[in-house]
């Protein structure tokens, strides 16, 4: 009899083919298993393939009497009770490789959309037959020669930097540790906020980065600055961002993630200088399949080869 792997969400089955060779897959017959259903099914499973937008609370982990590993479908893992997992000797892994390029691509798309007013013009043309055209109408801001400040120079941050350079942007960064690549200038956090024309948040959500951007930080930015968040919503104090945008403390924001998602602060939805998308940083079919493969590889590597891959606890 094969050991069982519990799959929390109905991800593309193409990503689970290798896993199916050695294990019995417990797959949802709907979009996802509820918390109660996870608790019911997990006792005889040795691994859980979880997903970034569904909680794996203490109750689920403690019900997993045979649970050895949780492999999270996503780079973020704040959906998992890491403390309980660690206390119970359970390895927790993520999928940092698969998510890198699509998230960086979206980051650049958001920079272009907010800097050139693409979303505003798109909405205007579709909803208003009198939307104004003209040589001096709908003026945006170019990227050539502008300074991009990246907060969090991990794999995604580096990919954003590489792509931004193709647009002629100067890249500076702030990171917990300086990186070895001398191509990019390291600045302390305060100087980065003061000097950057565009600020891209690419850091993980931790106790230290929760509300990293609030009133004080926003007031340090240029009044022409644009804030891009493809990291995690709670990195930004959303109400204080709304207040700053209303006061023109900064020029605009483009957000893929939100502090209380799927709820979005209603005033953000009304602002022309804000672009919002529904957490689609990794939302390509290719990426979803690759994330499944990487999450599966974490499980196979640990349970069959005895090697810890992408461990985060």
Automatic annotation (TrEMBL):
GO terms for molecular function: NAD binding; oxidoreductase activity, acting on the CH-OH group of donors, NAD or NADP as acceptor. GO terms for biological process: amino acid biosynthetic process. Residues 108-281 form the D-isomer specific 2-hydroxyacid dehydrogenase NAD-binding domain. Residues 6-313 form the D-isomer specific 2-hydroxyacid dehydrogenase catalytic domain. InterPro entries: D-2-hydroxyacid_DH (IPR050857), D-isomer_2_OHA_DH_cat_dom (IPR006139), D-isomer_DH_CS (IPR029753), D-isomer_DH_CS1 (IPR029752), D-isomer_DH_NAD-bd (IPR006140), NAD(P)-bd_dom_sf (IPR036291). The keyword Aminoacyl-tRNA synthetase does not apply. PROSITE patterns: D_2_HYDROXYACID_DH_1, D_2_HYDROXYACID_DH_2. Keywords: Amino-acid biosynthesis, NAD, Oxidoreductase. It comes from the Bacteria. Pfam families: 2-Hacid_dh (PF00389), 2-Hacid_dh_C (PF02826). Belongs to the D-isomer specific 2-hydroxyacid dehydrogenase family. PANTHER family: D-ISOMER SPECIFIC 2-HYDROXYACID DEHYDROGENASE FAMILY PROTEIN (AFU_ORTHOLOGUE AFUA_6G10090). This is Dihydrofolate reductase. The lineage of its organism: Bacteria, Pseudomonadati, Bacteroidota, Bacteroidia, Marinilabiliales.
């Amino acid at each position: 009899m094969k050991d069982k792997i519990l799959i929390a969400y109905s991800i593309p089955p193409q990503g689970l083919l290798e896993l199916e060779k050695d294990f019995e897959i417990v797959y949802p017959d709907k979009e996802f298993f509820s918390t109660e259903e996870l608790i019911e099914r997990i006792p005889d499973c040795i691994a859980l393939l979880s997903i970034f937008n569904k909680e794996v609370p203490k109750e689920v982990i403690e019900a997993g009497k045979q649970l050895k590993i949780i492999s999270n479908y996503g780079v973020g893992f704040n959906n998992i009770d890491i403390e309980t997992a660690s206390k119970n000797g359970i390895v927790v892994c993520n999928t940092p490789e698969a998510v890198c390029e699509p998230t960086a691509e979206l980051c650049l798309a958001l920079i272009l959309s907010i800097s050139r007013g693409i979303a505003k013009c798109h909405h205007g043309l579709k909803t208003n037959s009198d939307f104004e055209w003209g040589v001096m109408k709908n003026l945006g801001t170019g990227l050539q020669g502008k300074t991009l400040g990246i907060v969090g120079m991990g794999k995604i941050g580096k990919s954003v930097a590489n792509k931004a350079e193709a647009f002629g942007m100067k890249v500076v960064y702030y990171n917990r540790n300086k990186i070895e690549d001398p191509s990019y200038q390291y600045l302390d956090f305060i100087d980065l906020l003061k000097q950057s024309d565009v600020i891209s948040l690419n850091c993980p959500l931790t106790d230290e980065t929760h509300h990293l951007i609030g009133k004080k930080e926003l007031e340090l930015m240029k009044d022409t600055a644009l804030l891009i968040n493809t990291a995690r919503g709670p990195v930004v104090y959303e109400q204080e961002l709304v207040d700053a945008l209303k006061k023109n403390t900064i020029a605009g924001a483009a957000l893929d993630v939100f502090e209380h998602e799927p709820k979005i602060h209603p005033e953000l939805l009304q602002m022309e200088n804000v672009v919002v998308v529904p957490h689609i940083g990794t939302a390509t079919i290719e990426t979803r399949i690759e994330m499944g493969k990487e999450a599966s590889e974490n499980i196979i590597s640990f349970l069959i080869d005895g090697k810890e891959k992408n461990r985060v606890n």
